[in-house]
Amino acid sequence: MKEDFYGSINMIPFYKCYKFIFNYENSTISNKVSFLKEFFGNIILLFPFAKALEIVLQKKITLKKKCFYIFIASFSIEFSQYIFNLGIMEVDDIILNFSGGVLGAYLLNSYNESIKV
């Protein structure tokens, strides 16, 4: 598999994670830091998306709808990287973006329920 080829698609879930874990001893500090920044950055990227969505639409949205919009946003980000040749469209980035967005939506719903908004 050719790596770091802009405008390509990686459909193998968590391929980079697999490589990182099994080549950990041979990785440089720079590679380790880069991987961790990318991994957690993908999770954090859509974390505030659910709140931003409620602010823009000026209404409360069900968790199911939030999850749908989060998936569409995550897929759109990755697909635009492919279409505009800006990066690699990776399925694990979609999964991590979606996971972070859903975590943020779940925490927002829990907070709203706890204060009865």
From TrEMBL:
Parts forming coiled coils: none
Instruction: Give one Pfam hit by family name.
Output: VanZ
Q: Can you give the residue ranges of the VanZ-like domain?
A: 8-108
Query: Membrane-spanning regions, if any?
Result: 69-88, 94-111
Q: Which UniProt keywords apply?
A: Membrane, Transmembrane, Transmembrane helix
The entry's protein name is VanZ-like domain-containing protein
What taxonomic classification does the UniProt entry list for its organism?
Answer: Bacteria, Pseudomonadati, Bacteroidota, Flavobacteriia, Flavobacteriales
